[in-house]
Specification:
binds 6-O-phosphono-alpha-D-glucopyranose; Glutamine Phosphoribosylpyrophosphate, subunit 1, domain 1; alpha/beta; 7-stranded antiparallel β-sheet; 3 domains
Length: about 600
């Protein structure tokens, strides 16, 4: 969702802001704007639509001169996408310009108060109140004013603020919305995430909630809400610029699909030592694990689908009951949890609003929080008792692939780690599990080598109007992800069903030519799913089966079969998901869809 970049230095700010914003496009947006300070005044340029419109309007930033500025990509929440609703918003006198990511929950009462005091609003946004509040509370001291403003607003915010009285500094703050500080040589930055400034610096500060940062060309000072300076540890990002570039691929999504073997390896390798899983990252003791009463897994979107896999795997290996819930439901369901429950929170971005709120809800009930997060220093990571990072690197395509795969990997690590501590493995089983886990990257590479096979199938089905994905247990969990992948980028209606449930209603939708993708990878339930394949075939469906190279029977019943290598049953999702990701990608590509930035979707959903 909304993206922020800010710059102060010796170079022209506008081109740097536009370039930085282009790196944040993946977050999803529908308008963009910049504010540049020059000659004691602030100049603003904004435009509805893609960043290219703003670039054209400003001649790639050349028409707005100045070496300090803030920029924003807006994903509309309060008020339609339009020039006037775009950020930056300006206070009535023109003294302040504000960019904001998040939601000001009490903006209606603040707006009313400000209108009563004579302020005039021109936009429908919640953000405009911030610009006017700055004016209202202005004491001549920008830090003091910032503290007053954030004490009045409720909700989530990352803010970047220019004040025309301050020709050589600007100010920013964050609470529950992401904002990092980039440290350069005679230049400094703020940004919603590292990718926006990676070209200029890899040295950053992660801000905690309500830390206020004052940036000058050659200094960065961070303060708490008592206006006391806070010392922060500098963090050096080890990604290089190419990690966030397309590198010759047509789409980030394909690049990220191809990066999966490396991402999985990077996530597993540091955590396996001398044939054992070592989770130095977490403080959960054997005693703690033995005392776990129940596990909840809470997440949104694909991360939720990882949770569904997690339920099957953890219950199977550890025999601890697991409940999986989408975060937007969990946060309001008055969950029955207590200190003996472990809540596993999964999030690529670490900033999904519902997931963060669900985490806080669980924490309020005294539960222990273990999060699986890709973005270091993100809000969810900061709010958790323990964090296991997925080392997927930056994921740019809205439709997740490598983050999903690394999250699966962490789930396996957690499940096997706990099972071993609980004495659920024989020593032979544990060693075999680890051996199989370590074999995953090579097996994923093998599947990717024959991706043209899936491309061919996509060419046969890209005109379908509706597609069903079926499977049982873990195959069902992966069906959910396969179906989501397809629909989010190709706009084809698709549903995932537990194969045995189909006959309780949905089978009535099957008619001549309907494509059913049937996953039957596990040994135990293979025959059961084959029976379901026969049921849909009998009603006219065309079936694409996904199974392992040990199951020849699928060839007898399905019209097309995609084979994956065999692996420990619990790990099969890591392999079966690959052809489904490829299928979604190729279908969307053949339909000419905007694969990396599908309509209406945002990578990072920072609003409820
Ligand atoms: C959005 C993305 C999905 C993602 C979900 C959860 O909907 O488009 O790909 O799975 O958010 O995001 P998170 O960052 O919490 O994993």
């Amino acid at each position: 969702m909304c993206g922020i970049v800010g710059y102060i230095g010796e170079n022209q700010a506008a081109p740097i802001l536009l370039e930085g914003l282009s790196k944040l496009e993946y977050r999803g947006y529908d308008s963009a704007g910049i504010a540049i300070f020059n000659n004691n005044e602030i100049k603003v340029a904004k435009a509805k639509g893609r960043l290219a419109v703003l670039s054209e309007k400003t001649d790639n930033g050349k028409t707005v001169q100045g070496t300090m500025g803030i920029g924003h990509t807006r994903w509309a929440t309060h008020g339609e996408p339009s020039d006037v609703n775009s950020h930056p918003h300006i206070s009535m006198s023109g003294r302040f310009a504000v960019v904001h990511n998040g939601i000001i929950e009490n903006y209606i009462s603040l707006k009313k108060k400000l209108i009563d005091k004579g302020f005039e609003f021109i936009s429908e946004t919640d953000t405009e109140v911030i610009a006017h509040l700055f004016e209202y509370y202005y004491t001549g001291d920008i830090l003091d004013t910032m503290v007053k403003v954030i004490n009045r607003v409720e909700g989530s915010y990352a803010l970047g603020v220019l004040c025309s009285d301050y020709p050589d500094s600007f100010i920013a703050v964050r609470k529950s919305s992401p904002l990092i500080v980039g440290l350069g040589d005679k230049e400094n930055f703020i940004a919603s995430d590292v990718t926006a400034i990676l070209k200029h610096t890899r040295d950053i500060y992660y801000l905690e909630d309500n830390e206020v940062v004052v940036l000058k060309k050659d200094s960065v000072k961070i303060y708490n809400t008592d206006k006391e300076e806070v010392q922060k540890e500098k963090f050096t990002v080890d990604w290089d610029v190419s990690a966030a570039e397309k590198g010759g691929y047509e789409h980030f999504m394909m690049k990220e699909i191809e990066e999966q073997p490396t991402a999985i390896r990077d996530t597993i390798s540091p955590r396996i030592k001398d044939g054992k899983i070592v989770l130095d990252d977490i403080s959960l003791t054997t005693e703690d694990i033995k005392n776990i009463n129940k596990i909840y897994i809470v997440a949104c979107g694909s991360a939720y689908h990882v949770g569904v896999v997690g339920k099957y795997v953890i219950e199977k290996l550890c025999r601890i009951p697991v409940e999986v819930q989408v975060a937007s439901e969990f946060r309001y369901c008055d969950p029955i949890i207590n200190k003996n429950d472990l809540v596993i929170v999964i999030s690529q971005s670490g900033e999904t609003a519902d997931t963060l709120a669900a985490l806080k809800e669980a924490k309020n009930h005294g539960a222990r929080i273990l999060s699986i997060v890709n973005v270091v220093g993100s809000a969810i990571a900061n709010a958790s008792d323990d964090v296991i990072y997925t080392w997927a690197g930056p994921e740019i395509a809205v439709a997740t692939t490598k983050a999903y795969s690394t999250q699966l990997t962490v789930i396996y690590l957690i499940a096997a780690y706990m099972a071993e501590k609980l004495g659920m493995f024989t020593s032979g089983e544990y060693a075999r599990f680890i051996e199989e886990l370590v074999s995953l990257p090579d097996k994923v590479s093998d599947i990717l080598k024959s991706k043209e096979e899936v491309q061919y199938l996509a060419s046969k089905f890209f005109n379908c109007h509706s597609i069903f994905f079926i499977g049982r247990n873990l195959d069902y969990a992966v069906s959910l992800e396969g179906s989501l992948k397809l629909k989010e980028i190709s706009y084809i209606h698709s549903e995932a069903y537990a194969a045995g449930e189909l006959k309780h209603g949905t089978i009535s939708l099957i008619e001549d030519g309907t494509l059913v993708v049937a996953l039957a990878t596990g040994q135990e339930l293979f025959d059961k799913t084959v029976s379901n394949v026969k049921e849909v075939k009998a009603r006219g469906a065309v079936v694409m089966g996904v199974t392992t190279d040990t199951h020849d029977n699928m060839d007898d019943v399905a019209d097309y079969v995609v084979k994956i290598p065999s692996v420990h049953e619990a790990l099969l999702p890591s392999l079966s998901v690959i052809p489904l990701q490829l299928f979604g990608y190729y279908v969307a590509s053949l339909k000419g869809c905007d694969i990396d930035k599908p309509r209406n979707l945002a990578k990072s959903v920072t609003v409820e």
